[in-house]
Predict the 3D structure of the following.
Amino acid sequence: MIPGRSAPVQRTSRVRVWWLTGRMLARDGPAPTRDGPATSRDGPAPTRGWRPTSRRGRSTLLAMVTSNPALARLGGYPLAAFQDLATTLRADGRPLHDFSIGDPDEPTPRFIREALLDAVGPVSRYPTAAGQPALRAAVAGWMARRHGVTVDPGEHVLPSAGSKEAIFHLPLAVLDPHGPRRNVLWGEPGYPVYGRGALFAGGASDPVMLTPEAGWRLSLADLPADRLQRACIAWVNHPHNPTGSTADLGWYREQVAVAREHDLLLASDECYQEIWFDTPPPSVLEACDGDLTGVLAFVSLSKRSGMTGYRSGAIVGDPELIRRLRQLRPNVGTAAPDFVQAAAIAAWGDQDHVDQRRAVFAAKRAVVLEHLHAMGIEVSGSDATFYVWFRAPGGDDAAYAEALLRERIVASPGRAFGPGGTGWLRLALVPTVDGCRAAMASWRDALDAGRLPV
Ligand SMILES: Cc1ncc(COP(=O)(O)O)c(C=O)c1O
């Protein structure tokens, strides 16, 4: 127990962290392997669980409404639990160093906010799923400037309401739930939406375990051919959440080649593309040498321009796949409002604010890395993104997250991103530079006082 703290407070936080990690893992069966397909993890949900009953103990009408088994077996969204936890902890009014959710404190640049406000007209109209031509052109312009890739705004670009919904909905356009290729490959630890989109589309999530030895990068070439041929989509994500690992052009070329050999759609989640520190990360589209067949890049303004709340991104790539998505997406109702599109046009057209944001993240990262190194904590990946990924001192990420929580520092245990993250933790560089300094000082004090495992 922490000296000077009462037992009930400590019990509450322990139960809370146990509950969080337990909920996160509720979906997980055996850990994924480099060559084993998803099996029981994607089977129907067990039917145990809460059932609404009337006062007399009879089932209410609600119990007769069927439930999507995918929904029943998932439990809550893992990172939402952290948001709830931070809100609960903040309620007592004491300072909280919240490094949990990838939603930094820096304001959205003024010119972007003004572009949105200027575009709010007196008459409201439905936006179209295809988006405004000017927005598609702005995305294409950025792609040419940033990545040297020429795309046709009409054929190769489709706006999205942030990349999350686009990632989730992709399988609805390409996955045949009754066909032989219903799996979706993705690296774990990773962003859970790749697998969840597969499940809700009637397919199966097939996570591939990532390792520090392999630089937290999956290699399609290392997977057995039958596993590749049971999949319709392979997701890659660099710079990577949660590890911050990056990939070079040679790696992308290899993934494109293997995906094409096995008729897989290679989908590249590039929402952290602009948050780098040494070398600008390439896009998968650079590795296509002008032939975008079977390849899509998912880009976003959330991290690039501090626009998480605006919900604006784009899908760029293979014209046939874009055509299918253009057919699907009007059914989904995810078209971004026209005033958000106006703000997005302004944001894609400017690079200065991106460079300024990157400098802020670099300053925060320097503070955090210096302290972790000084405390003898092993950092892995963390080459780009605003995440720092470190090995749990003592080996248990949930226990270390709990210990940090008692110091009012919120970090995400790696297992929240899948079993492959067990033993690691993620810090999202959310607080300001001064906030990062204050948190690191508290961390150091706790370590010196023997309140944290070493
Ligand atoms: C890897 C990854 N992909 C996609 C997203 C979704 O971002 P958005 O929908 O804000 O573009 C996130 C958000 O944190 C993420 O970490």
Remarks:
- Confidence is low (pLDDT under 50) at residues 1-15, 21-55.
- The chain has two domains: 7-36+64-107+353-448, 122-350.
